[in-house]
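Quick one: structure tokens for this chain, please?
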Amino acid sequence: MGIKPQTRPEFTYWKRPWHKWLVLAAALLQLLCLWMNIQECNDISKAGILSASEWADYVAQKNWQCAINGMMAACCLGTFLVGLFVRSQKEARLIDGLLLLFLALAWGVTGVALRLISLSDKGLFWLLILLIAFGGAAHSLLQYYKNRSFL
């Protein structure tokens, strides 16, 4: 009678097998919302029913909605892809950190390009999302480097 060696359970990114499908569904729903926002904006533009000042306010609001939908779709789709391809906790930390860094940079560029900063309360919310994304990226990357073996 020999002692069986303990084997480590295989790494899984998801707590439950159906979680990945929820994340993918969330990404697809955000893409649908983005498409619907763009279509609505095109329809309003073609109708020409808004004055110049109303149109400017409307476009600022739609830019904000499209930015949020796009960011959420990219985040969910990125998380889905990371969950499919990572094979270890260490690899997951690294890829999560890089994904968040990429999303933070994209969010920063989007905010500057669409002038989201100038939208008073939305500008503060934009900045908060930017700081959270950079903070999450820094935390994941620090955890990766902290737990990295140098052998």
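The CA atoms of residues 50 and 56 lie 9 Å apart.
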